[in-house]
Amino acid sequence: MLNLSRRSIGVFMHRTPILMNMENWQTPKEKYLHDFKYHGKELSFTEAKNIMFQYLDSSGSVDLEKDSNGIAKIRLSNPRFKNAINVKMISDLEEITEKLTQWTNCKGAILYGANGNFCSGGDLNIAKTINNPFSGYAMNIYIGHVIDKFKRLPIITVAYIEGTGAIGGGAEITTACDYRLMCNAADSTVIGFPHSKMGIVPAWGSTGRLVSIVGVRKTLDLLLESRLLRAAEAMDSGLVDGTVTTMADAEAWLSRKIKGDLNVIRAIKSTVMCYNDSLETARMMESRIFAPLWGGTAHNAALEQHLKHNK
């Protein structure tokens, strides 16, 4: 039994407020090192969007093509930077997602990149411009919300990965699709999450989605090792669902999945998404963990050295 004298109890009671006050005295950096979270201003989606729209430019686009067979083709287009994602492209994706919500005859969609490449990640020029935790938090809230909405569309979505592949933010976007197909026409096509080499962790809700796809241990391996996987290894890990040679092959692959009744297909997708509700809470926590790393020492050093694509 614990035996405390009146004096020792008095000392303990006297010190407790001091320990509590010490936590209140922590600097933002010290508090982050304590619990790995952002402690700045909370932002609504609209507030985050307004902040990010300060960096909206005219380069890049996301384009929608509707086929009569009920399949949409969504093209990421920023060829100058191998379709790297910027604010304009996310804005376009937000509008396209709304259009697909209203296209009631749609069964499925293929997400692909222009000029034979999928997506090289986030636009590093933007990253250098907004490299501070507050902007990182705003970016994660805005882009994460848009991608969440895309993920929840009641249609079956496939990412068709070709050319240089899906790297960093490009790989993150593929996790919002129900399936991932890699083109086997070239051995150089890869998929991977080199974020740790950039001094950050994945954002936009992709960590939770990756855990759902490949499990906890494989997610740890992919994020800690930062390796870029070719098709065979990506399939072995469960990250990729198949290989095809052309866009026509990808469309045929999707068509086999959605050959049933339109309403049944959309009901199946909607029912499955009901079990992903807890991911929203996880994504908000991811935003708070990601933000302080964005613009941190390791991240800035990596941006200067262009480390993302080094294998």
From TrEMBL:
Single biological process term from Gene Ontology: fatty acid beta-oxidation
One CC-aspect GO term: cytosol
MF GO annotations: lyase activity
Transcription found in the keyword field: no
Pfam families reported for this sequence: ECH_1 (PF00378)
InterPro entries: ClpP/crotonase-like_dom_sf, Enoyl-CoA_hydra/iso
Listed PANTHER family: ENOYL-COA HYDRATASE-RELATED, ETHYLMALONYL-COA DECARBOXYLASE
Name of this chain's protein: Ethylmalonyl-CoA decarboxylase
Organism: Aphis glycines
